Amino acid sequence: MEAKQLHRAPPSSHSPAYCAILRAGPRLKPLQQVHARIVITGLGRSQSLITKLLSFACAATSPVCYTRRLFLSISKPDTFLFHSLITLTSKFNFPLESLVYHRRMISANISPSNYTFSAVVKCCADLMAFNIGKTVHCHVLSCGYSLDSYVQAALVSFYAKSGDLGVARKVFDKMPEKTVVAWNSMISGYEQNGFGKEAIGLFYLMQDSGVKPDSTTFVCLLSACAQLGAAGLGCWVHEYIVRNCFDVNVVLGTALINMYSRCGNVSKAREAFDSMEEKNVVAWTAMISGYGMHGHGSQAIELFSEMRVHGPRPNNVTFVAILSACAHAGLVNEGRQIFASMRQQYGLMPSVEHHVCVVDMLGRAGHLHEAYQFIISVIPEEPAPAVWTAMLGACKMHKNFDLGVEVAEHLLSIEPENPGHYVMLSNIYALAGRMDRVEKVRNVMIRNRLKKEVGYSTIDIDQKICLFSMGDKSHPETNKIYLYLDELMSRCREAGYTPASESVMHEVEEEEREHALRYHSEKLAIAFGLLKTSSGVAIRIVKNLRMCEDCHTAIKFISIVTNREISVRDRLRFHLFKDGSCSCQDYW
To answer: Which family does it belong to (predicted)?
Structure first.
């Protein structure tokens, strides 16, 4: 009778069994021992005790099998137990288990709560289980939770992670009250899917709505600024963080490093790095990468050496960053040694990214034979297309047309649908004077409906991002921009500039090439920046593709005739133009 009475009346938080669970904490073996004592004393069916056991079991090491056994020991699990299991397994990163318990909950005809739905939707996002997530969304609607702020925030995050930003924005716009979590989810969704301009625009709407940003907001916003090169807004965010005494933790600090590095201010990135009280491997790697993209190979190696002595253990991403820095600075011997140390000193197996960096490093330095031998001898499996692409770029750079054609044709056999390979092959044939082959490549692209990636450039003027593409006439001040650019290029010609017509893909006639070159996106963005800023203000441009040779030459002359410092970040690195020279020293 005494045991039955204990079962009927749930133990209080001061009962011996409950206290024993608390003492065991999130440790699997002590929990199992307490569980055994609970069963022996007749308390094995107390749902409050089992739920508390489950809460600690989910936080313990390898809890999945044990939590399942605990769950199966209960004959009739109730709503609270299901909710606890789903939210706990979601919280402790066991999303598949959450979905399993959710399915059991539905089978038992128990309706989920808004918190349960929020956890399940989050798990669908974590698992990229988009079809299941859409089914859960239908269930949300049928259960009447379509306007619940927690569920809506989870759905916004789910659709944003799935890349379905249209639906994410529809759910977001329908929210009667938008929490900071919902705003963060939508801003993050835009940023992570490459829509940095939309992310920044949404942040301005967030400000207008009166919702105060938190550190997560600023991490997302700084990433969007880094993506677009929005230095003005990025600096404002940093000032806001300092002014409002935000805790600059390792995540926020790393976001600042990335923002300053990718916006062209590597010295401010180093200041942010040095000011961080805690630095993990991600922060160190971000700073090394920042030095690398600016061509500061020696500083990158110096910081890497400091990291090996005083910092955390380098990981695979760190080695990609330092090898890339060596490639962009021509530090071949140092790069060889660092690559060898990956396996010898750290036991890390090189991946595709490391192989690409080594081939790029050797190829840029003119060691084409060594790069080719590395590909066919050192790489254990069939080299990835990215490795051959790096080799092809080196062949074009050093005008080794025979090897370049061989590599390009091999690439086309691996990736016949990649238009970039055809463009590169066409340019190599053109540089070699094989115009008959250029025509054949063009015809193949037309027949297969392949188009080269559209290039665009952005510039940040007064915290507003303006985007230009080649020959773009969508800007309201187009006529003024074009007139100014024509005048600017005439001044450059007088200073000695000659257009490099081979920079244009050879589908246009010779007399059309100079016209096509003049209105490349980076030239339009620079012209607009010069019109809109005062004398002496540096111009900062972001290009989504690699800058062409003609633009690289032209911007040197623009920096002379305007007496301006011009920074261009292309797909590969930063170029700082000043007084007719570039920081890359034409090694790019």
So the answer is: Belongs to the PPR family. PCMP-H subfamily.
